[in-house]
């Protein structure tokens, strides 16, 4: 798989090397976010900002649910993606921001507390500490209408042992989708490489939209759902489940 070169915004050369070779390790990201919050918590977005795709995301939300729409942002870091939707969407949302770095979630939780209220008065935003490749202890099957992945799959694919875990990530994201739910992956990887990978990982009806060039790099959004057999299994598992488990850092 071919990727554009990642540019890391860090003063620590050894940390930059960690990011290049150990992006699947929690201690690498703890170091990264420790440096980032040295001057106070602030958003950091891989690839591009929330504003670059806010229109696409808000339009995607339309029609996903007639009531509350449940959204999962995997590998959220301190991204403004979930918080932007919480702030901008006129629909009632329940957004779960998930990461395996406690330092990232500490910073994001502070940013959430300092954020203006949601556009919809009943919307909620929660933070969850968990590994996106193993969501079973955190979320039941068929829990979300929309799952967002901006860069998480890419970081795994760039690691020496990453492709297997990247496939596991996609499998877990599809498992927690509701019937007719959607997984959106944002990436700079060419469709000729990413689409076959997503299909092999279990995705159905994979579609790709070119977002455009940002800072000289072309980005894409890949949208996929469950295969028909997965939909049937998901419905059975959801009836057996005990409901969505929410984390301690939750707004409002």
From TrEMBL:
It catalyses: N(6)-methyl-L-lysyl-[citrate synthase] + S-adenosyl-L-methionine = N(6),N(6)-dimethyl-L-lysyl-[citrate synthase] + S-adenosyl-L-homocysteine + H(+); L-lysyl-[citrate synthase] + S-adenosyl-L-methionine = N(6)-methyl-L-lysyl-[citrate synthase] + S-adenosyl-L-homocysteine + H(+); N(6),N(6)-dimethyl-L-lysyl-[citrate synthase] + S-adenosyl-L-methionine = N(6),N(6),N(6)-trimethyl-L-lysyl-[citrate synthase] + S-adenosyl-L-homocysteine + H(+). Its main location: mitochondrion. One of its GO terms (molecular function) is methyltransferase activity. It comes from the Eukaryota. It holds the Pfam family Methyltransf_25. It is found in: Mitochondrion. GO terms for biological process: methylation. GO terms for cellular component: mitochondrion. Keywords: Methyltransferase, Mitochondrion, S-adenosyl-L-methionine, Transferase, Transit peptide. Residues 71-181 form the Methyltransferase domain. Belongs to the methyltransferase superfamily. Protein-lysine methyltransferase that selectively trimethylates citrate synthase (CS) in mitochondria. Seems to conduct trimethylation in a highly distributive manner rather than in a processive manner, and thus introduces a single methyl group per binding event. This is Citrate synthase-lysine N-methyltransferase CSKMT, mitochondrial. It comes from Eublepharis macularius (Leopard gecko). The lineage of its organism: Eukaryota, Metazoa, Chordata, Craniata, Vertebrata. The gene is CSKMT.
